[in-house]
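Quick review question:
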């Protein structure tokens, strides 16, 4: 099959599986290595970030990625062949190097080939979850005494502490990566956000004590997410953390409800966020708040064993 036919079949299957997936973009091989089997095609890319960069907090320094398009009835076997071909391109990764990963992003509901990925040593590790604006959530009853307010410059130390606490918790799931420079990188980013005219950081206070923080992006800042979802106005929930001693008492739900209100006021059609699937707090929390998986990131870290 040629790439046009594969792409058409692939697009047809995805639109039948999930109406919130965007139509696949043009097959642009710039900077990528094309791979092909009889009924499937893939583009392999490699990216690297500097150890001191802000991006390095969220990922391994070297990432190999594979974008696949599958057609025909033997899609799982075709995916297996593509993964086998890809192995050769991972040769620049030293076996066992924790700062390397091989990543395959799949539409969450296009479940074909999940077992093939497991057989090749990949695990479903991170998800982009989506929540249509009209979706109802089911959280605990509102906690008396919780107040949500815009974060101000005087909150710098609190906001940095809550972000670092989140990074430390999330690092357990193997994708967020602690770095020696992380406090400086987080402080710089929070200072930048606090100086902006439009609020993006919100603090939850319980009887005056700051116990939680949520970070949001509204259009046009969040427009980079539109390639992931079939919607024009997308809100992005960058992060949410509740101080350890206050978890499970409704503070997170109050912050999420506030975030959804801000999105509604901005005319957002869907909200997106990333979360680690193995996180036993965030996974059930987001799905109770009306989110569901849209894209699943399958990771093999290190890229080569
Ligand atoms: C995920 C997180 C933000 C959730 O915030 P939270 O304040 O703990 O959440 P809430 O208390 O508002 O909601 C969860 C609680 O609501 C209650 N609840 C859930 N659904 C409910 C329902 N339908 N009816 C009544 N109560 C309900 C439960 O008691 C639940 O807590 P439990 O699972 O510990 O029993 C928080 O746990 C956290 O900061 N975790 C660490 C960092 C993190 O994972 N952040 C997310 C990164 S993407």
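Suggested answer, residue by residue:
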């Amino acid at each position: 099959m040629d790439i046009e036919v594969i792409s058409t079949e692939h697009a047809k299957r995805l639109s039948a599986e999930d109406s919130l997936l965007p139509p696949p973009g043009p097959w642009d091989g710039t900077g990528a290595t094309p791979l092909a089997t009889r009924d499937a095609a893939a583009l392999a890319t490699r990216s690297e970030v500097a150890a001191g960069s802000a991006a390095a907090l969220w990922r391994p320094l070297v990432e190999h990625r594979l974008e696949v398009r599958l057609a025909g009835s033997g899609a799982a076997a075709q995916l297996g062949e593509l993964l086998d071909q890809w192995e050769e391109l991972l040769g620049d990764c030293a076996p066992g190097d924790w700062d390397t990963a091989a990543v395959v992003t799949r539409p969450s509901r296009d479940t074909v080939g999940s077992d093939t990925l497991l057989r090749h040593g990949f695990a479903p590790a991170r998800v982009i979850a989506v929540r249509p604006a009209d979706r109802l959530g089911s959280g605990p009853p509102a906690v008396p005494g919780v107040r949500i307010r815009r974060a101000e410059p005087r909150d710098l130390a609190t906001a940095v502490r809550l972000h670092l606490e989140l990074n430390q918790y999330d690092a357990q799931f193997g994708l967020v990566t602690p770095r020696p420079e992380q406090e400086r990188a987080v402080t710089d980013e929070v200072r930048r956000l606090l100086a902006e005219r439009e609020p993006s950081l919100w603090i939850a206070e319980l009887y005056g004590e700051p116990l939680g923080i949520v970070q949001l992006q509204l259009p046009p800042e969040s427009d980079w997410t539109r390639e992931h979802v079939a919607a024009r106005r997308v809100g992005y929930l960058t992060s949410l953390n509740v101080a350890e001693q206050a978890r499970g008492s409704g503070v997170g739900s109050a912050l999420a409800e506030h975030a959804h209100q801000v999105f509604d006021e901005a005319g957002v059609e869907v909200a997106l966020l990333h979360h680690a699937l193995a996180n036993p707090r965030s996974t059930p929390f987001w799905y109770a708040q009306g989110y569901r998986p849209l894209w699943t990131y399958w990771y093999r870290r290190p890229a080569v064993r």
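Why it works: The chain has two domains: 3-126, 146-289. Residues 175 and 298 are 11 Å apart (CA to CA).
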